[in-house]
Amino acid sequence: MRLEGKVAIVTGAASGIGRGMAQRFAAEGAKVVIADLEQARPETAAAELAAATRGQLLGVVTDVTNEESVENAVARTIREYGGVDILCSNAGNQIIGGVHELAFSDWKKIMAVHLDGAFLTTRACLRNMYCAGRGGCIIYTGSVHSKLASLLKAPYVTAKHGILGLCRAVAKEGAPYGVRAHVICPGFVRTQLVEKQIPEQAKILNISEQDVVEKVMLKDTLDKQFTSTDEIAETAVFLAEKKTLALTGQSILLTHGWFME
User: I need a surface site. Which of 7, 19, 135, 257 has the fewest CB within 10 A?
Assistant: First the structure.
């Protein structure tokens, strides 16, 4: 197994992209901590994935925007599993609306989850990785919107661009300690978050939900397909298992040809 003996924390892992990564990591032999916000959901997801993979998973209620909550989650991981080898900073949220009508409170909600959460979890895990002296890997869930912009998503686009900057800084600082940092940048993934956006965009743009999917979300893909959680999870395993710094600081696009560089 490709990640046997490793310990991974995945934020926002009770559902969607994070759950897919947690499941694949467990199947590859890692001990996995599911860090998610809502009460009972992390424990339930951990139990379900443990039964499906026969792996070791621990659910920990974690608010990535709260310093104490993050520190407690990482401390518990260290107590239970002995350290942290992999962090997948994946927790995210989305609010749809034009810049001219966005509430400042909504802007701050997006920044808190994506950027504050990435910083707090990264900082807590780096401290252990540096002290342990066994290297490590930090994987951020970015987006095609880390590279370009779309209508009605200014806070999300801004936050995902910021993730690239954090990753590159961590890559430079972590290199002497054998710590790598990467950003996975998928296109649209048909998670609950995206399902919620379809009717919201249809209403704002005054088009059908089918047109949102075909003419907005998948318009520029080469095969008219959503990026899958399996594709993201496989990429995360590939990055996590490598010990070379060759890819550190890099972003990996999984957009079905929507954006290329």
Answer: 257
